[in-house]
Amino acid sequence: MNSRERILGRVRRALADVPADATPIARDYLREHGERTVAETVELLAGNLADYRAIVHRTDEDGLAALIAALLEKRGSASVLVPPGLDEGWLAGTGVTRVADRADSTPGELDRVDSVVTACAVAIAETGTIVLDGAPDQGRRRITLVPDHHVCVVRVPDQVVSSVPQGLERLDPARPLTWISGPSATSDIELDRVEGVHGPRTLEVVLMGGA
């Protein structure tokens, strides 16, 4: 029996005496704070991402490949991790060595990759959060946690929601969800901030509109 099975077993035992017709939990909380247009929601997302020290860029579909190529060049990246389902056109403008997302990649191999480029599942404006769900255009969770530089593309406005409740409605809880609010950061008891401890030191978010 592994740790997951033990935890789920304890939950089942704790719920064993709960009647089947128990009163359901009320979910009448606010679905979003205030009313906003689509454009205002996107602006709120951009502002909150920046507050979390993510670097925000904007482009349309036609300019995406050139922008990603410029970001990798500016970073000095010689290699980039590529999820299996990423749109090949997104990297059409760069000559950087592409590294496939392989199940047998070691942490050391992933650490030697300079950058990773992914899509996302949803972006939440009120919290400035990007959510990945392991879909083919995002790859395994570890490929966005080990490399030091993550470029994440958000399709605007399709993937942007106002609030966490709205975001949860779009997500499958059975998938491996990664919630990202800015680059990885932590601080010690004296509040000295250190970035890149348990994730990428630099997060660049591309808000991609239509063509």
From TrEMBL:
Residue span(s) of domain LUD: 108-208
Record's PANTHER family? LACTATE UTILIZATION PROTEIN C
Record-given protein name: LUD domain-containing protein
Species: Streptomyces dubilierae
